[in-house]
Specification:
The structure is a homodimer of 346-residue chains.
Chain A lengths: L7 H8 L3 H8 L7 H13 L6 H8 L4 E6 L5 H16 L3 E6 L4 H13 L4 E4 L12 H5 L4 E4 L9 E5 L1 H14 L5 E5 L5 H16 L9 E3 L7 H13 L6 E4 L2 H13 L9 E5 L13 E4 L2 H17 L9 E4 L2 E3 L11
Parallel strand pairs in A: 1-2, 1-3, 3-4, 4-5, 5-11, 6-7, 6-8, 8-9, 9-10
Antiparallel strand pairs in A: 10-12
Helix pairs in contact in A: 1-2, 5-12, 8-9, 10-11
Chain A binds a DNA duplex (16 and 16 nucleotides) through helix 2 and helix 4.
DNA sequence: TTGAAAGCGGTACCAC
DNA sequence: GTGGTACCGCTTTCAA
């Protein structure tokens, strides 16, 4: 479909000018006489001239589009990240194209294919749970596509990274739970090969260590699809509560895992926080409206989007200058609410 | 940025063929000899040939992209609609480009501009609260851009519409509240000029009428930004609870309004459902986890996306055939929970 | 069956 | 300052 009204050639013919003159006039080129410029601009305005961005992109080899790859759009955390990205991108005149992986590496590759065939100027990516390395990204990186990782970063490419303080968040949350007297804190999280998972585990372990306690490995559960499938979270919980010593607290690694755990506990008649405490990395918009109100580690999603987009666009626009890969770690915020506060000490 | 490896011309030169032959071979054109075709395909595969979609689009005047315009991405209802759209679009090989209006007509126009300059093949749009007519869409429609309205439809264009049964949903919810003994049901909703608002009001009024009661007009509150701004919802509630006869129930028209109302009631110490009942059009993923569990009218968001995308792509692919504008009204589902069930009758 | 060439809409180099 | 023209990568008509 092409909704083009008139082209540069039409203007040139109508005004008896050459294509190049019209093109220059339209771009406000310095050396075009005032009268000609005005004539062109007036005609263009009057006939509602609109440049064909496809043609421009083809010629200029840039599209003023940035591609975003993430696992899923309907997600309170990622939704806000997207808004952060858009706020920066649109202010700089970039269109944002979002693609979803649904946690599949296959889809991730397809998305990259689609995006790059359309000549995006840069890429923001939060990898899928299935992604173990950056092999599929290397060809693009080598050809000069600016890439910035956000949220779920993946090592191996000398480029910018923007993420939350996963280690710190997990540490604080675990410490809080231990302080509240919970001792058997189950951690439901993503596959170990993800850097994010490792970082959170590190914080979790550090809190135990600093409390002089040892981690029970059977309380660590990894969901292959990062909680995207409710059944995998339920299975993890089934296993946890079948243990000789079941957990007295659940630390979930994402919105989806937190919610599925919540529903599970509710359904199986466990009282929160008396029987089991529940807390998670979560950006629900109203965690205080849950019953009980939910303790969360909140990430600055909007800021993450802004920073990632900012770094990406900077790289795009200083294309040929070398740069130092930056790693931005955004602070997270522990919000303690009723779901982890027991009145009596165990 | 262009991540192109090799072009058709490269292949042609390497194989000593003409551009056109290569182009045809790549497309599997019928009249290309088997050996030539295989040679081209093999070479292309080996050298990782990837077509330049921009060039194809420029030439073919179609881009296999569809544009989506909606108010905001981080929204549980619209997020699911997007997924519905993507499920159909990607299965048919279309890339989806989503743009947000944030409830501003100005942004809506800009988004349309961006999308059409990039030659989208079709448009899915849920208009902003500020949008009163389709004037800004007419030029595109007239030039042949297939358009399908979804969710917030806007009359005036002979095209497909996909929406929820707003009238029925509001009717059922209001009837339910009346049945529960609530008499002064406040309705917090969007501006009256939106068709959706009118339809819901119609259902609301019908329920009152059928119950033999008359509607108190001072219980109807319209939020100019559709609830996007928390303050406007709070102001509406302030006004409602300053009335000589304050409401005993709140019927909110969207997720955002429902949530803001919930927070307001909580903050001002009103008990739900004893002091005030609360219910709304809402697609929260876990309304049962709220305290109290929330009565909702749930829309089939995913289906809405699927149907809208399906109709659009059908129109795109049968471009020149005439068509009958269809209006699809999807059923909604009333889910009664604790927030509207009082134990004692007033 | 294959090739030559024009053209999609714009840009930019090179002349004048 | 302005014009002529080649070219971005691909498609397609027309000829051979």
């Amino acid at each position: 479909m092409n909704i083009q009204s008139i082209t540069i050639k039409d203007i040139a013919k109508a005004l008896n000018l050459s294509y190049s003159t019209v093109s220059r006039a339209l771009k406000g080129s310095y050396q075009i006489s005032e009268p000609v410029r005005e004539k062109v601009l007036a005609y263009a305005r009057e006939h509602n001239y609109r440049p064909n961005l496809l043609a421009q992109s083809l010629k200029n080899k840039n599209s003023r589009c940035i591609g975003v790859v993430l696992c899923t759009i309907p997600n309170s955390f990622l939704g806000e990240v997207i808004n952060g990205i858009e706020s920066i991108a649109s202010s700089k005149g970039y269109l944002v194209i979002i693609t979803q992986t649904n946690e599949s590496l296959e889809n991730e590759k397809k998305a990259l294919d689609q995006l790059t065939m359309r000549a995006i100027d840069g890429l923001l990516i939060s990898v899928s749970t299935e992604t173990r390395d950056v092999k599929h990204l290397e060809p693009y990186h080598e050809r000069g596509l600016p890439i910035v990782f956000f949220d779920r970063i993946c090592a191996g490419l000398p480029t910018h990274l923007v993420q939350s303080d996963n280690e710190g968040g997990a540490f604080e949350l675990t410490k809080h739970l231990l302080d509240q007297g919970y001792k058997r804190i189950a951690h439901i999280t993503s596959p170990t090969h993800l850097a994010m998972t490792q970082e959170r585990l590190k914080g979790y372990r550090r809190a135990y260590r600093e409390a002089g306690l040892s981690v029970k490995e059977d309380l660590l559960k990894h969901c292959a699809h990062g909680g995207a499938i409710v059944a995998e979270v339920e299975q993890a919980l089934d296993e946890l509560f079948s243990l000789p010593e079941p957990p007295d607290a659940i630390l979930a690694a994402s919105d989806r895992m937190t919610q599925s755990s919540f529903q599970y506990l509710r359904r199986t008649g466990k009282n929160i926080p008396e029987d089991v405490a529940l807390a998670g990395f979560s950006n629900f918009s109203a965690p205080e409206l849950f019953s009980p109100a939910l303790t969360t580690v909140v990430q600055d999603a909007f800021e993450m989007g802004k920073r990632a987009a900012g770094l990406l666009i900077e790289r795009i626009e200083k294309k040929h200058k070398p740069f130092d890969p930056e790693k931005i770690v955004l602070p997270v915020q522990l919000q303690v609410r009723a779901s982890t506060q027991q009145t009596i000490t165990k």
